[in-house]
Amino acid sequence: MLTSRVAAALPRLLPCTRPYHKKALTNTAVKQKRSQLFTQEAQRQAALITDIEKIEVQYDGQPENCTLIMNKGMSTPYNCAQHINQMMMERSVLAEVDGQVWDMHRPLEDNCTLRFLHFRQSDPYYANKAFWRSASVMLGAVLESSFKDNLYVELCSYPSPNVRSGSFVYDVDLKIPEWEPSKEELRTLSGEMVKLSLAAHRFERLEVDASVALKMFADNRFKTQQIPQMAAQSTSGNTVVVYRIGDFVEVSRGPMMAGTSHLGKVSIVAVHPIETNEAQLFRVQGVALPRGFLLNHFAYGVLEKRAQQMNSGRLPLNISSTEPQTQASTL
Amino acid sequence: MALPKLQCITHALKNLSLLSHPDQRALVCVNQVRAMSRVKRRHTVPPFWLPKTTRTMYPEHMTPENEVFLKDVIEEKYSSPLKTECWERGTWAKNSMRCGLIGRKIGIYPMWTKDGTRLLTTLLQVSDNQVIKYIKPEDIVQGKRKRYRELGALVIGADHIDPRIVTKEYYSVFSEAGVMPKKKMSKFLITPNAKLSPGTPLYASHFQPGHYVDIAGITIDRGFQGVMKRWGFKGMPASHGVTKSHRRGGNIGSGGDKARVLLGTKMPGHMGRERRILRGLKVWRINTQHNVIWVHGPAVPGGVGSYVYIYDSVLPDHRHTQENHPPFPTCFQDEEEVEEELYDQELHTFREPSVQFVEK
């Protein structure tokens, strides 16, 4: 017969008899955490610039060539476009800085030459690639937010963008043995993509240390494997690039398009199961056109039919594989 | 009262005992009571429930290679080397009703019979007719008229159009059947033994010379017409003191107790652009290569180039019998050999020697 005071002191000594509920992981909670870490890191990096230095940006293009005086490490090609023309602001998908493809919202480092890339130029190769890559990332964002809370969805990776394959792709671990989506379910996913496009989020870019990235993606077993490989291949040796749209954060290498509003007509058309040693993954496929590109329903139907075929892009590596990884699957 | 009513006349058959059995009674609608008062004849817009056929065209800036590719895709999609999926083919029985065809009036030609009589014939071209859908008897929307036999329906389409210029809603009507979208569609009531699978092509050889057809069509739009053309009034003399009333209607009332203009009084108004059915037209000739049917008379409703709906005649004198019924449920021209030109026995063909008369 112990008094309550004594009883309160005892639990530390005696084994706990009450059941201990581990808080289940949900995609919403994980997304919020990642977004917060992104904001913190962005603020930290912004605070590093104490002195505003000026750089000269030589702009070549419409309506006329000009020299812009911008802020070093803060101004982006998008800010340059804001100084030039509304059309350049809205139309530009990527920038070309000193001959190198550059994100529209990536800060400029030094004096440079600037050009803008868009979809309607004679050879929109880089713009198309960025579009396809960005569509994959947006698909990842949709997949992470569309499923019920009791399902913890883990995004795996997507292969290098290849427009000729007919579809953009994301491989995902849904933790269900099989899923054959109905037409309505695919339409719902397409609708979510359209909503993301209408929300007109920017693709915010941040170059972070591998450790920060690992902290962000600690809850994703695939990304924790991929981040060290990507960091090893970077120029500095231990940094990776992360992008954020709205509250979805993704680690990726290549340049993305300026914002989600560049996505026009989009359809998610197929889900193919992929068997791997560790997990049952699903390859979700879709096809899209940039905004402003009008196409009749018959021709678009031909594109959709083609996109339903299993994409020939590289399958995600097994996470239990012991072979040395020479090239990361996520680009 | 407002809409035109069809008077159904039960024709007295020679064999009176057959009249007692409702299934074997022939219901023939011959007279059309034209009560057109208070009916809006001119409609500038189609009904709200009809899906839009063509979509708004916009510039797509497609490369020439892509245009060629899409044309190839369309051709490949709608020209399968495989046989169309065939349902069990029914056999003709008494009181069977098979589907009709959708044709286009392409002109009027004179023809001559073997004894030298000249007659006028109307040419109707049956172009790209295909079965789109079969509606089972259970799914037919039952009207107020009681039916004495179980009837299904076949939806037939005519004249295909490019799938790229139609709306998605309209295109979806045809995607189930796997046929190219059609310009014109019509429903034909049939007995279930005459059903055809979707995608079955229909040709002019569906009919045969010597048989009779009923043709439904929209009459020529004559616009706002006066009483003389519209109702056949005699008018008044051109001279001899007649004041300002040469083509007018004259008196319009009776007076007295009926001190008003009676409902249905014939007056000037819109004339034409109405659906009319012409019964019992003989088929004189058929060309199977171009799918043209020559029917008797110049009076097929509608102008040249307008669509008409051709049915087997319901007139009791021209009903089919076991010995002389046309191919049932249709003539499968892809499977059997059909002659190019089919003539009625009484028709004089110009390849034969000329009509000879014996001089008295």
Detailed description of the structure:
- The complex is a heterodimer of chains A (331) and B (360).
- With 331 residues, chain A is α+β, with helices and mostly antiparallel strands.
- Helix content of chain A is 34%, strand content 23%.
- Chain A contains nine helices and twelve strands.
- Chain A has helices at residues 4-9, 27-48, 77-84, 86-91, 125-146, 183-198, 210-216, 221-233, 297-308; strands spanning 54-59, 66-71, 94-97, 100-102, 112-117, 154-157, 168-173, 204-209, 239-245, 248-251, 263-275, 280-290.
- In chain A, α5 (125-146) packs across α6.
- Chain A is globular.
- The model of chain A is unreliable at 319-331 (pLDDT under 50).
- With 360 residues, chain B is mainly beta.
- Chain B has a domain at 87-222 and 272-342: Elongation Factor Tu (Ef-tu), domain 3, CATH 2.40.30.10.
- Chain B contains four helices and 15 strands.
- Chain B has helices at residues 17-20, 64-77, 168-175, 227-231; strands at 5-10, 27-33, 101-112, 118-125, 129-135, 152-160, 182-190, 201-202, 212-218, 223-225, 269-271, 275-287, 292-296, 307-312, 341-343.
- Chain B has a six-stranded antiparallel β-barrel.
- The longest helix of chain B has 14 residues, at 64-77.
- Chain B is globular, with a radius of gyration of 25 Å.
- The model of chain B is unreliable at 1-26 (pLDDT under 50).
- The interface between A and B is small, with 7 and 15 residues.
- Chain A: It comes from Scylla paramamosain (Mud crab).
- Chain A: It holds the Pfam family TGS.
- Chain A: Residues 75-117 form the TGS domain.
- Chain A: GO terms for molecular function: nucleotide binding; RNA binding.
- Chain A: Belongs to the mitochondrion-specific ribosomal protein mL39 family.
- Chain B: It holds the Pfam family Ribosomal_L3.
